[in-house]
Amino acid sequence: FKSRHSEIKSGRFLIFSHTFMTFSECAYTLFVVAIFWLTEALPLAVSALLPAFMFPLFGIMASKEVASAYFKDFHLLLIGVICLAASIEKWNFHRRVALRMVMLVGVNPAWLTLGFMVSCSFLSMWLSNTSAAAMVMPIVEAVAQQIVRAEAEVDALEMSYSNGSTNPALELDENIMECETSDWKEKTKEQNLPPAETGRKSREDKYNGIFKVMCLCIAYSATIGGLTTITGTSTNLIFAEHFNTRYPDCQCINFGSWFILSIPITVIILLLSWVWLQWLFLGFDFKSMFKCGKEKTAREQASAQVIQEEYKKLGPISYPEIVTLVLFILMTLLWFTRDPGFIPGWSSLFPEYKGFATDSTTALVIGLLFFIIPAKTLSKTSNGENTVFGYTPLITWKEFQSCMPWEIAILVGGGFALADGCEVSNLSAWVGNKLTPLGSLPLWLIILISCLIVTSVTEVASNPATITIFLPILSPLAEAIHVNPLLILIPATLCTSFAFLLPVANPANAIVFSYGHLTIMDMVKAGLGINIIGVAAVMLGIMTWIVPIFDLYTYPSWAPVISSTNSTRL
Q1: Which of 158, 231, 350, 561 lies 20 to 30 Å from 101, alpha-carbon distance?
Q2: Of 292, 320, 247, which Cα lies nearest the Cα of 479?
């Protein structure tokens, strides 16, 4: 009996030892990959490949199992979306959309800024945030330069009239920004400026404010717009794939449900960010914004002229643009109507294959059409015969490859491999048990803390790397404290995109900063306010209108039940 008892104890010890070694090795792998992602000592995609050989060597997962994690439904959805983005960029459809939206809003400076923000946000809903910023920024730069040039001429003319004659010493150079040399700045600090020079300095500050507001509105609206759709930014896609993989019985996260929960948040952040930037750099003059029946100022006339000239250069809408627009609308409608929730969607036409078709199915079907539909139509000669032309599709494979973000695809695959390893090694369960004491805190405080931590980390690390690190931690946290995982995962996912403080925080910031009109302190001041606005809007949403969409205050049947003695208070 003693011998049998010792054998049982020895066996239990070996099992415990093996389990401990397994999840400690998985934790080590996760730590190493996280350090490489945060420091970017290696390219993100290269660091994402570390689990592919570390897990087999540590005996956590077989090589075939790890490899299968690097290509998921997410990648098929990404391929379809990139096909659409490649066609939009190739045929300059994005410029037509951006300019038309700005023309509809008007040329009042404040409304013009809002127009650029709305158009850039709309583009970033369907394209990458980086592409949206890179597309719209040249238009903004041209408009801003023309505004400054026109107002400088008007100011110089008014000064000459007030003095009774033209004073060459007071005329502004046509390129007003060249006045901002360091020598000139030092001189104005050292000397007492006469009234004329004081007015000149005031106008310089105003012109600088115009450039700063227009640049920052593009950087921030490109990020804000990406929140709206599940395909708008890589962090949303990573969340959707992680959630659907971890909770396969829940089919509540799709294009339509995400749009409904995020569009109010996007609108709130966009409008408040617009007000914040106007107030911070230009002041907020309600009278000039809502004036009616008055003549346009020189600034407004210059803006209208530039925008109209840019739009005329595009010419009439072309056949490839029309086809791209039709396919874009078709893809959007199919996404919204697949499983809207309040009415049966088109997926209900296949009841025997429930759950088989996803958003990636729609994206792939439409994406393949871009490689099939010709970019030119048949034209007839005077004799009524069709002219012969070489067949060219809307996009080619090379054009698709140039737009495809392979780094993000591999990075996401590495995140999925890490998540699978955490499950197999029981590291997720161990983390969940350690986080159980947090259940004694109020729920709103837990959500706020997770939002603030994620927002802080994403300022110094890439957004995809941040969400990939935190999702495997926050999911077991929600299960351990017995709350709906969506209640914590949705705010954390949205806050991962709030990288507004630094030029290196995300590529859109870097693109705008490269134009030379901003300082780091400008971005820090503006970005801090927008970070606060963003977190506040997310907290408002998760505590109000998002609750009934997913029944967030009820622990769902699709989530695992973990025994816990801690209760979470609202």
Answers
A1: 231
A2: 247
Q: What are phi and psi of 249, to 5 degrees?
A: -80, -10
| Closest by CA position to 167, among listed 191, 192, 188, 195 | 195
Closest CA to 442 of 499, 483, 473, 405: 483
The helix/strand/coil state of 380 is: strand
Tokens of 382: 């005077």
C-alpha dihedral sign at 481, 486, 491, 495: positive
Q: Tell me the two tokens of residue 9.
A: 């104890």
Give the sign of the dihedral formed by CA 375, CA 378, CA 381, CA 382: negative
- Give whole-number Cα distances, 6 to 17, 19, 20, 33, in Å: 16, 20, 21, 40
Residue 326 CB contacts under 8 Å (≥ 6 apart), including other chains = none
| Residues 311 and 99: beta-carbon distance below 8 Å | yes
Per-residue pLDDT of the chain (570 residues; tens, 9 = 90+): 445 545 544 544 444 455 556 778 888 888 888 888 777 788 888 888 999 999 998 888 899 989 988 888 878 878 888 888 888 888 888 778 777 766 776 667 778 788 889 888 988 887 778 777 877 887 777 777 766 666 665 566 556 655 554 443 333 333 433 443 444 344 444 445 455 455 555 556 666 777 888 889 999 999 999 999 888 888 898 898 889 888 988 888 888 889 999 999 999 999 999 999 988 887 766 665 555 555 666 666 766 777 788 788 888 988 999 999 899 889 888 877 877 666 777 877 887 877 788 778 888 999 999 999 988 766 655 565 655 556 788 999 999 998 888 887 888 788 778 878 877 887 777 776 776 777 788 999 999 999 998 898 888 777 887 888 888 888 888 888 889 999 999 999 999 999 898 786 777 887 788 778 888 888 889 999 999 999 999 999 999 999 999 999 999 989 887 665 444 555
Say which residues have a Cβ less than 8 Å from residue 169's Cβ, sequence separation at least 6: none
- Length of the chain equals 570
- Kindly state the greatest CA–CA separation across the chain: 116
Q: How far apart are CA 47 and CA 35, in angstroms?
A: 9
- Which candidate, 44, 219, 45, 40, places its Cα nearest to that of 129? 219
H helices of 481-519, where? 485-495, 507-513
d(CA 260, CA 546): 9
Cα–Cα dist 120/273, whole Å: 14
Over the range 392-405, which residues count as b (16 or more CB within 10 Å of their CB) and which as e? ebbbeeebbeebbb
Task: Return phi, psi of residue 520, to 5°.
Answer: -65, -35
